């Protein structure tokens, strides 16, 4: 991490860069932060760095030629930089922006003051303006500290335990869980018994449950970016149904198994952490075909050639019907699953995927996603689902004919993708 701060008030940063986590990280060589005094590039005997704003109204604006001289000097010494300016007009700072900045070789943060920077310099030299929120500060120095602190946490070695970074609020998309310390009872309020039990698995489950509950209660909008897989206490499954499904005329039919569906959906299930990929077809010959393909990739020479495909096919389990698959999940999880159906057709009562995601977190049941081959699931299947998702849509027209392989990837990413 290599950051340069350009500021007219370098004294702001003396303690910040020498104390606590940031100070240790600099001394240990994990990060480098240089502070450049803008007044070194000022004009005249008074090293002027600002002037009155055109148009009146009060306030001073930092001079574009002074800013450019400072930036040119920095880049001449340390190479090209990604230039950031804290500003109320900028993008709202988020964990995603922090990670993007931390991936840069050299970041320059130019701290505005008074009325800010001349707009011509911003348009010419600033790559990104960043806002701390819907409020105004006296200058860019405090935002610069916040950006540097957030970036530093992502540098290996800066935080003692990397797991502390991963578990922080927003890193996984969720808020953090509550924390407690000694004494075990304070002011008549005890710490949760589970945290004093010494049972690591139960403590981990409690923390994830509390994080999910807190996020749902306080910041439900964050759920859209969160991978909720690890916050679910029960298993998650996907079923690919070949009967009853619809043909192109909308009639009930049985579709054929294809190796491409099995391979691609198996890989999606493995990527997004599902427990098993359930394939259902009433035709014995088709079930035998699935077994033959799975055996080739898991126990035959195919697995040696392509270990990744071996893992994908290893998630497959075959059933003659969705009912049998659901019974198997129920026995395995010791309770019936929440069944989520998918369709490309508009249907009354369809759930927005975000509402379904929130319901999954609240109910804490095993989950079974059901996808249809052919032209989609028959109403016999959709009618027994607890939730039917609204169709995937995009673009500007009414064309909506994704392959089931693509649909599975999109749906699973919405629920179990990581930001």
From TrEMBL:
Catalytic activity reported: guanosine(37) in tRNA + S-adenosyl-L-methionine = N(1)-methylguanosine(37) in tRNA + S-adenosyl-L-homocysteine + H(+)
Binding site for S-adenosyl-L-methionine: 112, 132-137
Gene name of this polypeptide: trmD
GO molecular function: tRNA (guanine(37)-N1)-methyltransferase activity
Ranges annotated as spanning the membrane: none
Organism (species): Aminivibrio pyruvatiphilus
tRNA methyltransferase TRMD/TRM10-type domain span: 1-224
Subunit and partners: Homodimer.
InterPro entries, sorted: Alpha/beta_knot_MTases, RNA_MeTrfase_C_dom, tRNA_m1G_MeTrfase_C_sf, tRNA_m1G_MeTrfase_TrmD, tRNA_m1G_MTases_N, tRNA_MeTrfase_TRMD/TRM10
Family: Belongs to the RNA methyltransferase TrmD family.
UniProt-listed Enzyme Commission number(s): 2.1.1.228
Gene Ontology BP terms: tRNA N1-guanine methylation
Coiled-coil annotated residue ranges, if any: none
Organism lineage string: Bacteria, Thermotogati, Synergistota, Synergistia, Synergistales
Protein name: tRNA (guanine-N(1)-)-methyltransferase
Cellular location(s): Cytoplasm
Main enzyme class: transferase
Assigned GO CC terms: cytosol
UniProt KW keywords: Cytoplasm, Methyltransferase, S-adenosyl-L-methionine, Transferase, tRNA processing
Sequence ranges assigned to domain tRNA (guanine-N(1)-)-methyltransferase C-terminal in this UniProt record: 236-417
Protein task: Specifically methylates guanosine-37 in various tRNAs.
